[in-house]
Write a structure and sequence with these properties.
10 helices
Length: 218
Amino acid sequence: AAAVIISKNRDKIKERFNIKPRKPRLFKAKNVMLHSVTFYENLHNDKSKTTFLSACAVVLLFFVGQIIASLATGFIFNKNNITEFNGFFITAQSLGFVAIWVLSDAVVGSLRFGHGSILNIFNGTAAALIPYTATIYINIVLSHFFVYEEQGIMSIISAIGLLYTVFLLFQSVRINQKYSVTEAIGSMLLDVLVAVIIILLLVIVYMLIRQIFIFGTT
């Protein structure tokens, strides 16, 4: 009853207590998933701290979701040995992916006369992760209720989330960098190539440091 009364007299209450209208938050899952073009167009001109913190929260949820999926997925569907949990691998798979994608998109954008800043690229990448992150948590819950024969449903849910995330990444590259459709597709392919090169360089550096450490220990 109180909620109904307040909702009907909202304007009078705001006027009585001199409550100024709050600026609507840009970073909402509904805006990202249902109005992606408008969202990324507004995001390109948005440099507020609230949006950046919201993007960090999404990346954190993505990271935590990967950990929970590795440790707490229903035992029928969990192929990981939880006694051999590798935190470094999970971190590289989640936070490392975000960092490498943002870096590669920034490099390719600077070489191809793009207009997206690193902040916009990070915010756009984080927003694109929302569908896939949601499917991670949905599958964690479903894994405790489904039988093994129903794993195809979980695979379909993951595929939908992944495809939606790829689509949103495409929208992020196209709108943030102000590319045409073909330029955005070419830029994404170059982003993948640059990301692979960065990963190979990191692996080579890791192997060299490891060899130096083994040599010093010997």
